[in-house]
Design a protein that fits this description.
Pfam families: Acyl-CoA_dh_1 (PF00441), Acyl-CoA_dh_M (PF02770). This protein is an alpha+beta fold. It has 3 domains: 113 residues, Orthogonal Bundle (Butyryl-Coa Dehydrogenase, subunit A, domain 1), CATH 1.10.540; 108 residues, Butyryl-CoA Dehydrogenase, subunit A, domain 2 (Beta Barrel); 155 residues, Butyryl-CoA Dehydrogenase, subunit A, domain 3 (Up-down Bundle). Helix content is 48%, strand content 16%. The chain contains 11 helices and 11 strands. Helix 8 runs antiparallel to helix 9 and helix 9 packs antiparallel against helix 11. The longest helix is centred in the middle third of the chain and has 37 residues. The radius of gyration is 21 Å and the shape is globular. The protein starts with 11 loop residues before the first helix and ends with a helix.
Length: 396
């Protein structure tokens, strides 16, 4: 192995769990990476359920949530999720994938006992997938990186709420059993839990995108007079943005964890290729142009790993960690893009084929630089914080 993963100073119990997850992903899940039940819109439901069944038998299904429903710390979660990401199929198999992992975290934090029983528990058991309905089409002037632009509306009607609007880039909507829908009332943003499928939520098309690791792909959706019982609103009307932050700050970081694992594996494949492949009388790794790229990969991987654990520690203090998760999202996604690109370059023609996961990891990381907020939005947010902090220090 060319890169030594940290255990993150976790307990012996969690270290043992990390070992089991890594063994399962490397020795079981990786064998399904060329399974024909995968297409451009992600793994099929049949493959998804088969992999989760294997994880259940190996006792590594939903490993970041304990039997009593409590979550591992963010540092412990990092150690586990990095290892689940060693295959693009690993998070799906272990039930640590987006958007389910983030949705489970949110419902575990703020869901009522009834919501947790009806919606959360089947997700934890790996029986249902979920989708988070927030982003809206740009042509409609809807919410993207700026959720305050939300156009989807909700209005009370007796003991129900009626929701209307359009959503786009909704990951996993096709085939999901649980939906979290964001809409705007007179009080502000709201979140609702819904059972899927529902005839009032219509998938217009599944988009053809650069990435292909998430079941159901990414959909454009119309919501037409969806009626939701008032008991299925998270919290009170107008609290949706606050709950979104509870979900999004850790979710940005768990994306970093999973894709760090994928790039560690891609780098292993590239390093193995460079040591086996000869050109001009010696192994590729002995050519500085190649060896230096692999050396740079080790540097970027280690910096990304340190950033992940640093941000996890901040979140474990109980801080919201919005600025820290933005820094981690930018630093890690950009570093992993460099790693994935170098892996392709080291492997030459082989790197752009589907013979290994390297080309898929490259595509997935390119998409990762966009979702959960593109680099530029996070930099802009951090710049605004710099200005606020300066004013507080100099004008207060």
């Amino acid at each position: 192995m060319s890169y030594e993963m940290e255990t993150g100073n976790v307990s012996d119990e969690v270290a043992e769990l990390c070992g089991r997850v890594e063994d399962f992903v490397r020795n079981v899940v990786a064998g399904y990476e060329h399974d024909p039940r995968r297409n451009s819109h992600g793994p099929s439901e049949e493959l998804s359920l088969a992999l989760k069944d294997l994880a259940r038998k190996a006792d590594v299904l939903t490993p970041h949530i304990r039997e009593d429903g409590s979550h591992l710390t963010h540092r412990e979660t990092a150690a586990v999720l990095i290892r689940s990401g060693l295959s693009p199929l690993g998070p799906l198999a272990c039930n640590t994938a987006a958007p389910d992992e983030g949705n489970m975290y949110l419902l575990g934090k703020v869901g009522s006992p009834e919501i947790q029983s009806h919606f959360l528990e089947p997700m934890v058991r790996g029986e249902k997938r979920s989708a988070f309905f927030m982003t809206e089409p740009a042509g409609d002037g809807g919410a993207g990186s700026d959720p305050s632009m939300m156009q989807t509306t909700c209005r009370p009607d007796g003991n129900h709420w009626v929701i209307n609007g359009r959503k786009t880039y909704i990951t996993g909507a096709d085939g999901a059993g649980v939906g979290i829908v964001m809409a705007k009332s007179d009080d502000g943003a709201c979140m609702f839990l819904v059972d899927l499928p529902d005839p009032a939520i219509r998938i217009e098309r599944v988009l053809d995108t650069i990435d292909s690791s998430m079941p159901g792909g990414h959909s454009e959706v119309v919501i037409d007079n969806l009626r939701v019982p008032a008991t299925q609103m998270l919290g009170e009307s107008g609290e949706g943005f606050r709950y979104a932050q509870i979900r999004l700050a850790p979710a940005r970081l768990t994306h970093c964890m999973r894709w760090l694992g994928a790039c560690i594996r891609a780098n292993e494949i590239a390093a193995d290729y460079a040591n086996r492949r000869n050109a001009f009388g010696k192994p590729l790794v002995d050519h500085e142009g190649v060896g230096f790229m692999l050396a740079e990969n080790l540097i970027d991987l280690k910096q990304a790993e340190l950033m992940v654990y640093w941000c996890a520690d901040v979140l474990d203090t109980g801080a919201l960690g919005t600025a820290e998760s933005s820094m981690a999202k930018v630093a890690v996604s950009e570093a992993l893009m460099r790693v994935a690109d170098r892996c392709v370059q080291v492997m030459g023609g082989q790197g752009v084929t589907a013979d290994t996961i390297v080309e898929q990891v490259f595509r997935e990381i390119r998409a990762f630089r966009i979702y959960d907020g593109p680099t530029e939005v996070h930099k802009w947010s951090l710049a605004k914080k710099i200005k606020r902090d300066w004013r507080k220090a100099n004008e207060g």
